[in-house]
Here is the input.
Amino acid sequence: MTRVWLLDLDNTLHDAMRVVFPRINRAMTEYLARELELEHEAANALRMQYWRRYGATLLGMIRHHGTDPHHFLRETHPFPDLREIVRRDMRLVHALRRLPGRRIVVTNAPLHYASEVVRALGIRAQIESIVSIESMSFAGRLQPKPSRPMLRRLVASLRVPASRCVLVEDSVANLAGARHVGLRTVLVTGISHRSHHPSRRARAGRSRRIDVQVQSVAHLPRKALRSAR
Ligand SMILES: [Mg+2]
Here is the structure.
């Protein structure tokens, strides 16, 4: 039966650490300062507080200030020059081509940004669809990764058993959510875990939630084909 690869975008398929995340963080701080009439320092602190508490600044903004998510997402992802930041990645193109099964990008980022990144990377033809944060809203609430109800709904919509789906991610928290729902899990360490040496305890906790660990998605086909045998 077909395997379904659910691929995270930022820091999984491309490096968002260098330019993308710093710019999003800056834009979010400016947004909070503007909309909530805060000084820069206070806005920055509140942004981080919401991010720590809810896993996303947007969730805090919706809950406490009734922010319109579409307005927030549009204003905080300013990338008219995305093609200069994210380059075509032929290793990634080849890797995805060799990855047997369906390939779907699942990201907590907005669709306009995710589509642009996918196009800039040159992988549009390798991707069946993009599941962005806009489609993670139900029961009147935005429920991005690692929401278990959202992951269950996503798997149901794909019409395959959860055990045939693999979440490929740099976020251990998101993989833990996926694991609870019965998905298989791949941790990609090469970008966001570059200078990160986890403790033995963290490693042990991790290993319970992670089936496969790779440095880069480019290494995934080899591992996937081996484990499928
Ligand atoms: Mg990520």
About this structure: Residues 8, 10-12, 170-171 surround magnesium ion (CB under 6 Å). The mean pLDDT is 92.
